[in-house]
Write a structure and sequence with these properties.
Order of helices and strands: EEEEEHEEHEEEEE
Helix content: under 10%
Radius of gyration: 22 Å
Oligomer: single chain
Strand content: 25-35%
Number of strands: 12
Largest sheet: 5 strands, mixed, barrel
Shape: globular
Structural class: mainly beta
């Protein structure tokens, strides 16, 4: 049985930066599963040094309210399937989905930063630093923002977790892009050399 929203709480984030922003036009209908995809979403990076205490406390509070007697591992191929763990243990064992991602090894985010994904079926409201409404298209990759989020718990097909709903965005600074470092994607390679006598017509491109 699925229960998408068990407990919900609302709060604002520290300052961070928006990436992979889809807040103007909704994502298309999902033909494969015959249901709507998450219409609006973004990825949000919070740099090292920002106070995450209120965000972390809210995540823990929603989880403990949703599973006061502990979290049962219902994952199909888990070695601990059927066992019940405290909320803290369930987060540590990744039985319970944590919406704050600390593994940035496959991203271009700065060392020590964390990131989150937030989504909504409703178009989020966007405002400027004076809380005046602005067009959603004015917020793009790398803009410094504060998010209004709903934190909710869910259960679905043996999986359990906490996720973020995107309510609104306050733009507080102009954008800066992600600095792409190709050294993270590639390895040193040997140069392939073709000898002059091997360069026949079959190697020529018209």
């Amino acid at each position: 049985m699925s229960d998408f929203i068990k407990t919900r709480e609302k709060l604002t984030t520290p300052r961070g930066f928006t990436y992979w922003v889809t807040i103007t036009d909704p994502l298309p209908y999902n033909e494969k599963f015959k249901k709507q995809e998450d219409q609006y979403n973004l990825q949000f990076m919070i740099e090292d040094g920002q106070d995450l205490a209120k965000l972390q406390e809210a995540i823990l509070r929603v989880a403990k309210t949703s599973w006061p007697k502990g979290v049962k591992d219902a994952r199909q191929h888990s070695e601990t399937k059927g066992q019940t763990f405290t909320v803290a243990q369930a987060f540590k064992k990744r039985i319970l989905h944590n919406p704050l991602f600390t593994d940035i090894s496959e991203t271009s985010y700065p060392e020590g930063s964390v990131y989150l994904r937030a989504k909504s079926y409703r178009k989020p409201v966007c405002v400027d630093h004076n809380r005046n409404k602005i067009d959603n298209g004015s917020i793009g990759i790398g803009d410094e923002c504060i998010l209004s989020l709903s934190i909710y718990s869910w259960e679905f097909s043996g999986n359990v977790g906490i996720s973020f709903g995107l309510e609104g965005i306050q733009k507080v600074g102009q954008g800066r892009g992600i600095e792409y470092d190709p050294t993270k994607d590639f390895e040193d390679q040997k140069v392939t050399e073709v000898k002059a006598e091997e360069q026949g017509e079959e190697f020529m491109v018209a």
